[in-house]
């Protein structure tokens, strides 16, 4: 169970990223639908559990060293190739966004120059990727409990200090910008968007596990923790929606309202999530082309990291931002392929 928890925590650590931890994604995909956003969070939780379990077991069954083998296995020669290209591009793009985002956060919270902040994140990412796979997974997994603790503090504070009735909170929440026309499509889009990148690392992590039951439980625990965080953040922001409405970083605003020290802890959590995501994305991207035990791996990590840093300076993040919502819809193909593979393999239980 310890190994399963580590896999699940690393899966969570990769997906939460900056937008999730800041509350911005949860606001757009769930809280903006008011009370129905809670139902959307439950739907997303169930999807993350099922798909996390499915991809984890596929990774173990195929002993995957990268996402390529599993994607071709479930998508076939042609659809698999398209999904492989999209996922690989997305892995690199999101990591670049984390470099740029960390620079902005360092400047906003600690007064460090934007470029200097990005260099710090790039350096930490490259140094981490020079470690072996198990150490990388362990580092990513270690930050997740810290984030859960901070979010729980914010939730308790929000519940006990809210001045709004449910009807008032619902009305204000529905005035916020939404990522989709309705709560159900939004929940599916959120899972699809995150799975496009998160599945890659989950497959790689599970590929190093011999016991498919251990891998399967890792996917399930990851899905439960992800869903739990979504619902906790959603409820916390919903109860204080009059405070966080229109904020770029809603959870940070709530944390600072509790106490400046809690705000600093939340800022550290945000940077930790950016680091997690950058490490996970770049690792999955690199091993797509070069095996981690290859002599070319370490030089490739340095070169790719520097290219990513350069891309974060020349406006590449703007390009990636424009394709985020599109990736959500394209990710449906990945979900459908995974479900078909599930029935084809005849899996009805954890084994």
From TrEMBL:
<feature type="transmembrane region" description="Helical">
    <location>
        <begin position="77"/>
        <end position="100"/>
    </location>
</feature>
<feature type="transmembrane region" description="Helical">
    <location>
        <begin position="326"/>
        <end position="343"/>
    </location>
</feature>
<feature type="transmembrane region" description="Helical">
    <location>
        <begin position="112"/>
        <end position="131"/>
    </location>
</feature>
<keyword id="KW-0812">Transmembrane</keyword>
<feature type="transmembrane region" description="Helical">
    <location>
        <begin position="180"/>
        <end position="204"/>
    </location>
</feature>
<keyword id="KW-1133">Transmembrane helix</keyword>
<feature type="transmembrane region" description="Helical">
    <location>
        <begin position="258"/>
        <end position="279"/>
    </location>
</feature>
<dbReference type="InterPro" id="IPR038728">
    <property type="entry name" value="YkvI-like"/>
</dbReference>
<protein>
    <recommendedName>
        <fullName>Membrane protein YkvI</fullName>
    </recommendedName>
</protein>
<feature type="transmembrane region" description="Helical">
    <location>
        <begin position="33"/>
        <end position="56"/>
    </location>
</feature>
<feature type="transmembrane region" description="Helical">
    <location>
        <begin position="138"/>
        <end position="160"/>
    </location>
</feature>
<keyword id="KW-0472">Membrane</keyword>
<feature type="transmembrane region" description="Helical">
    <location>
        <begin position="216"/>
        <end position="238"/>
    </location>
</feature>
<feature type="transmembrane region" description="Helical">
    <location>
        <begin position="300"/>
        <end position="320"/>
    </location>
</feature>
């Amino acid at each position: 169970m310890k190994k399963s928890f580590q896999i699940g925590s690393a899966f969570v650590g990769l997906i939460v990223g900056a937008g999730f931890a800041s509350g911005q994604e949860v606001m757009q995909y769930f809280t903006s639908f008011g009370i129905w956003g809670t139902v959307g969070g439950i739907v997303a939780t169930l999807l993350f559990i099922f798909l996390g379990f499915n991809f984890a077991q596929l990774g173990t069954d195929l002993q995957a060293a990268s996402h390529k083998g599993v994607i071709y296995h479930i998508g076939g020669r042609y659809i698999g190739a398209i999904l492989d290209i999209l996922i690989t591009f997305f892995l690199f793009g999101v990591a670049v966004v984390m470099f740029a985002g960390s620079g902005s956060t360092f400047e906003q919270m600690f007064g460090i120059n934007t470029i200097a902040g990005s260099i710090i994140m790039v350096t930490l990412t490259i140094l981490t990727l020079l470690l072996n796979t198990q150490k990388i997974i362990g580092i990513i997994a270690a930050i997740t409990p810290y984030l859960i603790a901070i979010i729980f503090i914010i939730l308790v504070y929000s519940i006990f200090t809210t001045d709004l009735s449910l009807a008032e909170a619902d009305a204000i929440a529905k005035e916020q910008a939404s990522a989709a026309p309705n709560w159900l499509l939004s929940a599916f889009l959120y899972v699809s968007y995150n799975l496009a990148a998160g599945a890659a690392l989950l497959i790689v992590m599970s590929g190093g596990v011999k016991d498919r039951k251990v891998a399967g439980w890792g996917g399930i625990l990851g899905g439960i923790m992800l869903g739990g965080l979504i619902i906790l953040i959603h409820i916390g922001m919903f109860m204080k929606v009059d405070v966080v409405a229109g904020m770029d970083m809603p959870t940070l605003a709530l944390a600072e309202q509790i106490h400046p020290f809690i705000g600093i802890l939340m800022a550290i959590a945000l940077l930790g999530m950016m680091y997690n995501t950058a490490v996970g994305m770049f690792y999955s991207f690199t091993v797509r082309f070069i095996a981690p035990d290859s002599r070319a791996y370490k030089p490739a990590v340095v070169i790719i990291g520097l290219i990513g840093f350069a891309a974060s300076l020349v406006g590449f993040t703007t390009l990636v931002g424009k394709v985020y919502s599109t990736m959500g819809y394209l990710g449906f193909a990945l979900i459908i392929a995974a479900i078909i593979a599930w029935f084809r393999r005849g899996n009805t239980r954890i084994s």
